[in-house]
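Q: what sequence does this backbone want?
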């Protein structure tokens, strides 16, 4: 199947998962459990997970799937994978529970450690982002448009816009932003933080708190293919499925002309 056909079907699957999440969201009564790491999981997470996994199995039966809700795949098996789907059925569960709309469905196709195709859908906002390595990144909020960073702008006109987590503030973040004389924090939930940088609506997103690979793969792809830089703190590339742990190292997403240390 052509990559463009896969992407079109992927957008459909992503939207179906988002529609299912919205059924729970509108109802306002969703059963919630606490996982071993103390993070919440809801009925909506599980329902979206099943829609995505079933859809991907039909779309690309030979490509394995790693989802937050089915992550108990051994390293011995995972390290054999060259290409696989990386899924977070409901990213920003805390935002979902708080009912602020800033939650997303995230699906990324990872090849040799790098995300090469992705969808990020915020169903409560009706915002869809998608990307593939051949065509770049796109955004739709009723009307489709490509997103590409302007590389002629060398510095922000006023304050540097720093994306911060709405639900996970940290002392490390506060220390990081001290290097910028003029800055403002743009609090945002879920993988929409990547998308703000991709759209040029923010300049830098330092993630100095814990994230799992399924939290970041899709947003990473959207930002990267829009022209942003995504690196670990030592400047090296953020890669996926390179070790047994699925916990990401700290990283920074930025406009390529923004200098940071």
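A:
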């Amino acid at each position: 199947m052509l990559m463009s056909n896969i992407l079109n079907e992927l957008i459909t699957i992503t939207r179906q998962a988002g529609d299912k999440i919205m059924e729970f969201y509108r109802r306002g009564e969703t059963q919630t459990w606490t996982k071993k790491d103390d993070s919440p999981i809801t009925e909506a997470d599980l329902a979206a997970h099943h829609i995505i996994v079933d859809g991907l199995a039909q779309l690309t039966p030979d490509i394995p799937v790693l989802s937050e809700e089915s992550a108990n795949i051994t390293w011995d098996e995972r390290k054999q994978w060259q290409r696989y789907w990386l899924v977070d059925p409901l990213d920003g569960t805390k935002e979902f529970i708080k009912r602020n709309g800033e939650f997303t469905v995230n699906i990324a196709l990872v090849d040799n450690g790098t995300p090469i195709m992705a969808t990020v859908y915020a169903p409560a906002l009706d915002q869809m982002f998608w990307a593939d390595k051949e065509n770049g990144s796109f955004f739709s909020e009723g009307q489709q448009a490509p997103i590409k960073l302007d590389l002629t702008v060398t510095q922000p006109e006023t304050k540097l816009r720093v994306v911060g987590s709405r639900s996970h503030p940290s002392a490390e973040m506060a220390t990081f932003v001290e290097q910028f004389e003029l800055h403002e924090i743009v609090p945002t939930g879920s993988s929409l933080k990547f998308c703000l940088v991709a759209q040029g609506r923010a300049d830098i997103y330092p993630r100095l708190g814990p994230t799992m690979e399924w939290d970041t793969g899709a947003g990473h792809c959207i930002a990267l293919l829009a022209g942003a830089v995504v690196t670990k703190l030592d400047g090296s590339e953020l890669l996926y499925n390179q070790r047994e742990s699925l916990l990401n190292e700290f990283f920074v997403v930025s406009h390529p002309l923004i200098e940071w240390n």
